[in-house]
Fold this protein.
Amino acid sequence: MKWPSAITIKEVGPRDGLQNEKVFISTEDKIEWINQLSTSGLKHIEITSFVNPKWIPALSDAAAVSTGITRQPGVTYTALVPNQRGLERALAADIDEAAVFMSASETHNLKNINKSIRETFPVLKDIVKKTLAAGKSSRGYVSTVFGCPYEGKVDIDAVVRISETLFEMGIDELSLGDTIGIANPKQVQEVLEVLLKRFPVGKLAMHFHDTRGTALANILVSLEMGITIFDSSVGGLGGCPYAPGASGNVATDDLLYMFDGMDIHTGVDQEKILTASQYIQKKIGKPLPSKSFQAASSQLGCRLENMEKGR
Ligand code: HMG
Ligand code: MG
């Protein structure tokens, strides 16, 4: 099997992970957590979102978080931006990259951003243009690529059309969202076969939620097809509030366990991610879903117990 020697992990926990949480994580705690992530070797962190705070109260402190963190050189700090108002707020907070987003299915798009797909295009076009003019980079997301919670099957032609339109707008990279964690490896292969005929492999990222436990299998297939950029969330936190039943992103911890074991370079320190997962788990007050995180935490507990006995 031919695998790449290195891949890039894009951490989305502070945005995708927290947006659906009932517990409000204080601004101070978010800042401390992002600062931990910033020194873990991650080079891309999606730190918050400048959406309407009435829709996503968990991230209503987007500006304070963006201006409060200690920025590390070489790390790109991204924020999700839905419209002109969001972009103004994001630029005032000096984010490095604005991520625009829309769905491949009409109903999810409407529920998520209150607009039809057709109405969304000019809004995003304007954001991308202004983002690039401000000297920032621009990332695009297409959601519900592999299935929609409202409409079920999603037409690949819709995914192609939206992806093409986003690239024409000037986005630097497109992340393909399995919003409700419904994809399987065969489907991932079929979808990528179509998209890779049209778009450069280095411009595509995969964004798998792990709702049904298929994310790592889907990532392995994507990897074999040449994809080297993967979005993930510390501890497997997260979910889309407008996708019923959607659970967290694939866990950064699980990705690191897999890639480190396969000798595929990520540049990210597993121990530091373990610490960041433990930190946010404590703040959220419930166990994080990542299997390798839970296994590593138990092993750490056993080691500490042994050390205490030995004293
Ligand atoms: P809307 O309510 O239709 O907006 O929201 P509006 O333009 O009608 O404005 C209504 C009011 O909101 C106005 O205030 C605006 O100023 C204000 P008023 O005049 O009534 O006092 N407003 C804002 N305030 C602050 N910041 C803003 C903003 N926009 C409007 N940016 C909107 C439209 C798109 C903003 C709304 O639907 C929204 O915020 N949606 C975001 C939903 C969301 O965050 N979903 C989760 C993220 S997407 C995701 O998770 C998927 C992804 O992970 C990939 C995957 O998994 O597939 C990316
Ligand atoms: Mg997501």
